[in-house]
Design a protein that fits this description.
Layout (H helix, E strand, L loop, with lengths): L2 E3 L2 E7 L3 E6 L3 E7 L2 E4 L5 E4 L1 H4 L9 E4 L2 E2 L2 E2 L2 H18 E3 L3 E7 L5 H13 L4 E6 H8 L10 E6 L4 E7 L2 E8 L3 H16 L1 E2 L2 H11 L9 E8 L5 E7 H25 L2 H10 L1 E4 L8 H9 L3 E3 L6 H11 L1 H4 L7
Parallel strand pairs: 1-10, 2-11, 11-12, 13-19, 19-20
Antiparallel strand pairs: 2-3, 3-4, 5-6, 5-7, 8-9, 13-14, 14-15, 16-17, 17-18
Amino acid sequence: MFKIKKQLFIGVDFGTAVTKIYLQEAGIVEEIPTVIALNRRTRGVLAIGEEAKKMIGRNPMNIDVVRPVLKGVVVHFDEALIFLESILDRLKREYLSLLGVKLIIGIPLDLTEVQKKGVIDVGLGSGAKEVYLIEEPIAAALGANLDIEEAKGILIVDIGGGTTDIALISLGGVVLGKSIRIGGDTFNEAIINYLKSKFGLLIGEGQAEEAKIKIGSIVNNRGEHFLVKGRDILTGLPKELHFTSQHLRESIAEHLEEISGVLKDIVNLAPPDLLSDISQYGVYLAGGGSLIHGLNNFLEREIRLKINLIDDPRYAVVRGLGKVLEDINHYRKYLINV
């Protein structure tokens, strides 16, 4: 039986790795991998989300497995549209909306006007009547219950699946900010390349992600390991290796240093009064990538400022989207409509 709503007002954290959906007055209603599997010939949908993700690296020639968002940018427009349309159709089967669908979609900093318009076009093409955007660091700060409207500097680092957004926020706006194309997916690629170059072991994306999640630490004192199984590059035969936190640290060290380097640049460029605020309150860390154990300590040593890991950082952006949805009149000023 349908639940009747005046309008379906939906927040979309359209992530490179995972898409999270917030429905006004209902909360977070969906969290699925941003992956879609299509019949190569007919382009019919075979699977989306978790079922499609299982097909990565295992799909036959007649099935295309597509990740429509890469490093925070929609790179496969048609597949992104079908993916979002499938999610909205599921909601429409549960809710009867009298005035249709309205979307707010989180985007990284530094998207071009063309890229922003591309995201809006995906939303409109999926069946929404209105589509608005919000920069993810703003949403993450709202989701962390930080008062971004105050005359106070708030420095937030949001490490997502495809991008890391670093923003210094004051009086409701981004004073300084940068988006770098480093995130959970980059870490996976780094693990694959590390094992290939150092041990001559070839593994797929799925195992790299599993190893990263299982170890989940760059601190080499927890004694944890993950048995990766792949192919020896020289012999072509099966090969195994115990992947440890030390391996994880070595494999992603270059990317962690790049994040800390950009963070240092933002701190160095911060106006003196805002720098005083940052020194007092520290830096706020959000996003799924922030859950790697020891990352906060690494950044503290690098920039010599306190690092605050916010509660449940994976959901900071989608919680922020929810906050906007539930009080749209107050937060409308943060929305972008190209």
